[in-house]
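Follow-up to my earlier ticket, as requested here are the two runs.
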Amino acid sequence: MYVNMHVLCIMTHVFASVKVSDQKPLGSWSVKQTQAISCPAIYNSQTKEYVVVHDKKVLRIWKDEDVNLEKVFKATLLADVCRIHMLPDTEPLVLFEGGAVRRLDVLLTDPQQEIEDIVSEGEVIRWSDSVLEAGSPIVVFITEKNGAFHLYTQKLNPDMQQKFKLDSGEEIGCPVSFALSLNQEDIILTCLYSDGSIYKTELPPRRRSCVENEQALPRSSLLKLPGCKARSLQRAAIRLLDEAHIAVLGAPHSLQPTVKESLSIWNTTFQTLLTWKELPEGSCGQLWCYSGKLYVPHGKVLTVVPFTCETSSLAAVLGKLQQPNTAEMKTAFTVVNWNALLYDEEAEGLQQAAARSGAKLEPKRILRSRKSQGASTQQQSISQDQLLNQIQTGTLEKVEEDLHIFFNNLQSPNTQLITAQITTKLVHRCLEEVKFYPQKALVQLLQTQVLSYSLCPDLVAVALSKADYFLLQLCLQQFPDIPEAVTCACLKLFLSVSDSDLQDVTLDFGDVACYIDIENQSPQHTETPEVVQNGFSPGLLENSCDLPLPPVKSHQPPAFDVNSKCPVSLQKAALLNEILLSSYSETFLLPHLKDLSAPQVMLFLQYMKYLYVKYSETVNTELPGERVPTVNQVLDWISLLLDAHFTLLVMTPEARGLLTHLHKFVRSQVKFYSELSKIEGSIQGLHQVKPLSYDSRYSIEVIKLF
């Protein structure tokens, strides 16, 4: 299932939460090998908890910070659970295999309570869903027994049950997939049968319980899929997109025998196919729809398909839908009295007619001027198709000009899809024509803040080939789903470029200048008293480790100095900060970090050491600014870099002194915080000391800590 663009992946023994935009797991939990997850998990947004059932009767509830499922809340129920349903702003509903429904909070008050059976013996629940009707949750499920299908509705508060019979037989086959929707106050059930027929059924009002007397539900034909024979569909799924559009998965969209399974979208009003996508690897018969996107798992891949539904009309089906021009002016006409002209009426009447005619000519001239103004305004706008054609053949200046005009007049809810399509066209032309590179246009597209790496993966590759540092900085700032290999490619480029090449490059420095000093030190230093900042001083370094320091030549600065300057320029520091702020997975990042050369590793390590020293100079270990890497991020990158190049650094003479001093500095920090922890209890005890009564005279109070 999906939760706010987070997909919950359930396997036999493993449960994982994956963020779709980043394509990275947020967390994973597993049960024992002897246990098996028996129904889909849910996420309760009210309590921020996950709920899952394994072995049909064991209920587990936990939060994101929980690691081991064996240590989270556990409840063993008396009856087997079929599924847990979640509706917005309501308590989760637990559907048992016997047909009973309980609220989760009521069930947790007494997990060993008796659960009644509603369905008959041998009747198996094949599908279930839930919907809100007038604020009250209703659970709808369909059962099968000996080829006969029945539909049950369970309404809570007040408790009400109904049972209906679904049609099935040799002519139409058996129902394969179902979709539940709410049309105002009516609950609509859409059924896909094994012969490719899709029927719509409106459930009767729920006024009283009726389980004993079975009622046959009337149905109406909605769509007939081509290429389907009797009982040819065994595994398929449908989802209603709106009142006139439906998505079908796992069924052929045409009579072509080569296409076995596909995802297709149909217009049910005009019985037409709008679009389709072939699935050569097949599907598992699961299809989800959420927030304008279709989620299709097939094989080991989860495909996310954005969609938009136009207004259902014949013009839209024929592809000739035009937006009405509401600003169109109406022409004023002058009405002439022809009787007065033909029969020589009095001159006064003619003069009045002429006067009326002349009075109406002036607005007519005004309307012509307005029409010309509207035409000139229309010439300044450009459509999406015109812009895409201009991108393919136009000059660089013309493309950038038309792109600026297009986005100034863009007013569409599909801004993300339109921007991604335009960016893809631009990038493809950049790959085909080496001399074509619209840097301003690409920057403008990135500044819309609607793009991601998955929408236009070749954009970063083009920026790397052109060594466009500003464009790469924007991509790192706005793309949360950049793969680790691309991140390391950007890091190699940033570390290899010289500071002189970056002097004239336009970059977003942010607040880097607030904490980085890149000016050269003066050759003469005045001796200043030693100041201990956040537990660090050179004296602590001398006594914190017994490792011998390599001799330092007189003409070289000390290998480790709190007053040392930043080893990189301001421009390169801004770029390296974007690398430190990027998201990554250690498993995928480590192999690519090993591609860095020894000088690049040394420079990156020196810069991170400089940042770490800067953090130690502040009381709260924070640096000013918004887009600034935290001390934890710096330490994580230092650990990763050491893990990837430890052997190389140990064998490099230039790195030995750096590693030794970095090791001593970390030990001095550990020693300082360990000393602070010793007096933590005493300092906390000061809050419990009752204040003494003081007189008006001056007094000194001595508090003994040890």
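Run two:
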Amino acid sequence: MSSRRSMRAKAPVKYTSASEGSDFEATKKKPARSKTSKATTTTPKKRTKKEQDPAEDAAATPPKKRTKKDPETLAAEHRDKAAAQDAKAAKASHKKTWEAWIEEHKLPDTDAALLAAEPARDESITQTDAGKKYGLKKEELVVLKHFEKKNPLHGNTMKLYLEDEVKVLGYRKLGVLDSGDGKEKEVLERGEEIWKEDHKNDPKDENPTTKSPSSPKSTAKPAKPKTPKQKWSAYIEAHTLADPASLKEEPANPINQSDCKPKYDLLPADLAVLPYFAKPNPKYGNTTKLFDESEVKTLAWRKAAVVGGVEEGEEGKVLEKGRELVEGRVKKKAEEKE
């Protein structure tokens, strides 16, 4: 008989009984409950009326009926509401009047909006200071001439305005926004009163500007002598042509606007007193301004004489002195190049 074990699987052994505490025990016995472990429950005690929350009592009571307002009180409220609406409508109307005035008096975005010379330091004000001191926005300053120069601090272009003109414009704005359009003198006086009331607590200025000419109490101060640059600016403003493009034919000896600056030291604002011929420029699609060079040369002599401090006198002597100054300047530049 072979001693090898049979490879046939045998059925698992089933135990008919299990020892106490064994994993094979079918059911475990529950521990006996002691008599003392039974929880005692008590019925909550009802609250009396005195112990109830007063908020609950208020919620339970019905709300009181609304009482009607006194007719006089209602009428006063109605009047106040109507007055507030009228004031709001008037304010909007005055604002439109001011915006229409700005649009009507806006200067063109050309050289005509530029001052010919830089104003003195004590007579000028920047665009930023005009907003801080007189409450004027840059969109409202477009009605005034200005001078553009490079800002030494930030390298951008800054605009300088004449403070007397800015002040009058600020008074006009306050007067129009307060009472609408009216007589010139009344609007400016009202605006000045409002501005002084708003700035009565401001620190005193060491160099106070003169009062507005609209004020009847203002005293006229002696006019300061004009500087040579201011005299030249006055000449340009007095002789500016209404229609400078009046030449019908191209000059025999033409010179364009760009060449006038390096050759004769004349700015576009200076050339506003001379007529020119408008010639279409097909290369850039714009118009070239052609001036008569003889007239440009005479204007350059006049500018050199006025800016050089030559006293007014005979026309020929003034121009002769200006010619000497121009030729001396040209000679000096030639020597510096050598």
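The only thing I checked on run two: Strands lie at 124-126, 147-150, 157-162, 254-256, 277-281, 286-292. Let me know what else you need.
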